[in-house]
């Protein structure tokens, strides 16, 4: 396999991670709210940097892993891989590198994860056998679900999500996922929950699994201490597991499926990417058919170890389903790994149609549904009080708080923080608060710090009704009942769901499923049931549909499951204007809502199941679709085109842009014989009015002449030339991008003197608007003589926000790590665009610093 010699060569020791650093080990800082004042990403400090060195690294070794090795003896090849690791350990120790080994990987990815002194990364990167280094990224602690008990006599109608995907119809056919085992890589599973089998081991629903970290594990700063028991003490994994396979009060998508639990989180805190890879290898060894990963690291390339391991897991016959991510507010290219893997199924989130909610009552009026706010008190279940409209309850609206004593405050979301609102209404004597949405539908809310005051959220519609009723004396009564509150945003893509595409313009996400406001199981100690939102919830919906598919069609290859599910996907309307007739951008919904009933029933399929056109460069492209008819009667198919909303080129936003693709077909009618196949040529032309760098997409729809359900193929393309886009926009800071400084402060460009013996250094600050294939830093004498390459980094993500910057530090050393003589030097930063050609200078951006004078 051809691959870069090293992901991070030479000057890894010059890279410091600050705050919550993102991928690839470079530091990230935030630009700040005034010139010359930086913010560290993830903090509120304005007094200067808080450097924190990364100490956890993936070390990729030269040989491909077992899953990529081809037709060789497993035992013989494993011996080779083990020897390769022994050779690396010996070489590293010989060079004086001190490290603690965390994991060694052979099957899905070849290498190790280490804890190592960052000052030794230079020596580590040049150790014989090292092919690449990747930072071991942090997976944040999952948020907690909102506990919510079921109403008595609950039926399937209560849990509308499984009706949205066709799963309830498939269950009525007697297909439940029986005989299929799904691996849940998450916080564990409360296997004693009655809906999840009330036991652990052979014969139970949760038939096995393991704890890879221990209850006390908190991610970085702690070492995994597995205890073998994967019982959940967080809650996230139990909620996910219920969506897949619960069978009780809650009925999941595949209630007949079995589960294996791989616990990679402790009771509190986060986890790390190397633990995820270890869990994926454990799942492979246990023989599961499907793996669900409701987790990930945003803005990643498919080459990141969790993405590559996901692809190799599929190559070994396991369906991999992963959440696309909850970075919708971060703009384009925000899909995470492992979902970014080329063969993984990346799942977007759609809002549930109805929400199981507590009920309050206005005499003679409608029932009001509400959801308690996490980390606040729940409203009482008995009693009543007058209501009063207090606007948004912000500091500048305190006049509206007069007369609130003993009443329930009705306030609207937005304009100021939740704590400000609550402190104001509590201080004015309110007995409780109901906050209504500023957009249609009900919503979940949680506070980081507890406030002992009863408060809840409700829909914009209910809030507007109560606000109007509050003009007159109106009582609101709390009840012990529940209501299935209609979600006004139901069926549209969730606002938090991440946008694609992949860094190389792969069509991501792949498909969508219900993830907004999902009712499922929780650990018994947390109340047993609750509501949660996120692509963490949509991913197990698709894992469950895959289990239904594999029971119905047990010989389906893992490589084909995504294709079949995508064929039957149903387009989602644009969430900002659902009645416009314009579907949500493809780079946010993929093939649309999964429809497992059609996937199982349809006797024909289309390949490829998705089309990534890449950069169009002004030229039409023709792609060929092949229709396979597995039925006993001929097919007559009529191809049509449905264009979806396009997005502009600015990556930090996901603004809808004018322009729809033009699509034509040959032949105009496709006839497919029974048991045979036929080909359809589809020609795509980029939208003339869309700006270069904008992304467009839509659906090729094949509709049978007999009126049966159509199948679809989503497509995605970029207008113009990807390499024309400016990755390092000079306008990203007041003084240019990149820029040179003696610390994290932004300063006008100019010569810089550093005194390395006193610890001073030259800082190169730069922002990436787009993912780039390569980042390179070279050193020159001021007269122009090259002194060599200081660093080269492959597969680099864009900055997560336009206020954030990466930085590199040069401390006056040459590429071999030796101090340079006193004198004048310049640094040259070069980035190669994604999909660029190495030898094409037009595919690179270059920046040369002003003079750096070294004075020792």
Describe the structure.
With 856 residues, this protein is of the alpha+beta class. The strands form 10 sheets. Strands 1, 40, 42, 43, 45, 46 and 47 form a 7-stranded mixed sheet that branches. Strand 32 and strand 33 form a beta hairpin. Helix 6 (273-286) runs parallel beside helix 7. The chain is globular, with a radius of gyration of 28 Å. The two termini are 45 Å apart. 54% of the residues are buried. The model is unreliable at 1-53 and 154-158 (pLDDT under 50).
Q: Report how far the terminal alpha carbons are from each other.
A: 45 Å
Segments where pLDDT lies below 50 for 5+ residues?
Answer: 1-53, 154-158
Give the percentage of residues in beta strands: 25-35%
- Estimated structural class: alpha+beta
Helical fraction equals: 10-25%
Whole-number average pLDDT? 90
Supply Rg. Answer: 28 Å
Q: Major beta sheet, specifics?
A: 7 strands, mixed
What's the overall geometry? Answer: globular
Oligomeric assembly: single chain
* Total count of helical runs of at least 4 residues: 13
Tally the beta strands. Answer: 47
């Amino acid at each position: 396999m051809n691959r870069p010699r090293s992901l991070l060569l030479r000057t890894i020791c010059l890279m410091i991670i600050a705050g919550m650093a993102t991928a690839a080990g470079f530091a990230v800082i935030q630009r700040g709210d005034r010139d010359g004042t930086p913010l560290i990403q993830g903090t509120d400090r304005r007094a200067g940097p808080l450097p924190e060195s990364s100490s956890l690294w993936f070390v990729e070794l030269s040989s491909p892993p077992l899953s990529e090795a081809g037709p060789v003896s497993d035992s013989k090849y494993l011996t080779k891989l083990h020897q390769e690791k022994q050779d690396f350990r010996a070489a590293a120790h010989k060079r004086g590198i001190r490290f603690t080994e965390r994991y060694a990987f052979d099957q899905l990815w070849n290498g190790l994860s280490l804890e190592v002194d960052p000052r030794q990364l230079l020596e580590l990167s040049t150790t014989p056998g090292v092919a690449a280094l990747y930072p071991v990224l942090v997976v944040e602690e999952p948020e907690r679900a909102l506990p919510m008990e079921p109403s008595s006599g609950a039926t399937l109608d209560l849990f509308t999500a499984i009706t949205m995907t066709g799963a309830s119809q498939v269950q009525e056919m007697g297909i439940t996922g029986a005989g299929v085992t799904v691996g849940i890589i998450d916080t564990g599973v409360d296997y004693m929950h009655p809906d999840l089998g009330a036991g652990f081991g052979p014969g139970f629903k949760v038939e096995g699994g393991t704890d890879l970290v221990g209850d006390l594990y908190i991610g970085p700063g702690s070492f995994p201490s597995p205890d073998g028991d994967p019982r959940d003490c967080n809650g996230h994994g139990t909620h996910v597991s219920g969506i897949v396979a619960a069978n009780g009060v809650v009925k999941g998508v595949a209630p007949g499926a079995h589960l294996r639990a791989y616990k990679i989180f402790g009771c509190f805190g986060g986890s790390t990417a190397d633990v995820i890879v270890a869990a994926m290898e454990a799942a492979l060894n246990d023989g599961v058919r499907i793996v669900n990963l409701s987790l990930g690291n945003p803005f990643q390339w498919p080459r990141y170890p969790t993405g590559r391991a996901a692809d190799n897991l599929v190559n070994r016959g396991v369906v991999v389903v992963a959440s696309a991510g909850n970075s919708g507010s971060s703009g384009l290219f925000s899909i995470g790994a492992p979902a970014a893997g080329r063969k993984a199924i990346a799942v977007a989130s759609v809002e549930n149609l109805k929400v199981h909610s507590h009920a309050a009552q206005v005499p003679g009026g409608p029932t009001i549904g509400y959801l308690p706010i996490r980390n606040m008190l729940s409203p009482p279940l008995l009693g009543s009080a007058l209501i009063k409209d207090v606007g948004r309850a912000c500091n500048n609206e305190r006049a509206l708080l007069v007369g609130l004593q003993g009443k329930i405050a009705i306030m609207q979301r937005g304009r100021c923080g939740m704590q400000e609102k609550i402190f104001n209404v509590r201080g004015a004597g309110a007995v409780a608060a109901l906050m209504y949405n500023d957009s249609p539908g009900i919503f979940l809310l949680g506070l980081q710090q507890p406030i002992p005051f009863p408060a809840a959220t409700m829909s914009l519609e209910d809030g507007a009704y109560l606000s109007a009723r509050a003009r007159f004396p109106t009582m609101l009564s709390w009840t012990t009942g529940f209501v299935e509150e209609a979600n006004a945003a139901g069926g549209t893509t969730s606002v938090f769901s991440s946008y694609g595409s992949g860094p190389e313009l792969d069509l991501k996400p792949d498909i969508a499923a219900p993830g907004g406001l999902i009712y499922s199981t929780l650990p018994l100690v947390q109340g047993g049931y609750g509501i949660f939102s996120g692509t963490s919830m949509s991913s197990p919906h698709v894992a469950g549909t895959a289990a239904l598919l594999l029971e119905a069609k047990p010989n389906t290859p893992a490589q084909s499951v995504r294709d079949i599910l995508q064929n039957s996907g149903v387009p989602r309307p644009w969430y900002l204007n659902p009645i416009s007739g314009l579907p949500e951008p493809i780079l946010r919904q993929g093939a649309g809502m999964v429809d497992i009933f059609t996937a199982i029933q349809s006797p024909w399929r289309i390949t490829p199941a998705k089309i990534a056109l890449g950069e169009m460069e002004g030229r039409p492209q023709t792609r060929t679709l092949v229709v396979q008819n597995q039925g006993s009667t001929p097919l007559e198919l009529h191809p049509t085109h449905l264009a979806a909303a396009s997005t502009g080129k600015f990556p930090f936003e996901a603004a809808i842009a004018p322009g729809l693709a033009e699509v034509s077909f040959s032949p105009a009618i496709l006839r497919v014989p029974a048991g045979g196949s036929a080909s359809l040529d589809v020609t795509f032309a980029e939208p003339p009015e869309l700006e270069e760098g904008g992304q467009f997409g839509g659906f090729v729809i094949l509709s049978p002449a007999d009126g049966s359900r159509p199948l679809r193929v989503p497509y995605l393309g970029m207008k113009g030339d990807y390499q024309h886009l400016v990755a390092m926009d000079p306008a990203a800071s007041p003084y240019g991008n990149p820029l040179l400084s003696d610390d994290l402060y932004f300063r006008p460009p100019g010569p810089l003197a550093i005194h390395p013996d006193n610890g001073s250094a030259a800082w190169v600050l730069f922002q990436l608007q787009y993912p780039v294939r390569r980042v390179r830093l070279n050193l020159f004498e001021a007269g122009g003589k090259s002194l060599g390459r200081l660093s080269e980094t492959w597969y680099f993500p864009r900055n997560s926000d336009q206020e954030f910057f990466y930085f590199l530090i040069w401390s006056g050393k040459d590429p071999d790590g030796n101090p340079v003589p006193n004198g004048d030097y310049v640094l040259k930063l070069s980035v190669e665009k994604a999909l660029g050609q190495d030898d094409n200078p037009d595919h690179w951006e270059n920046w040369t610093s002003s003079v750096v004078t070294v004075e020792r």
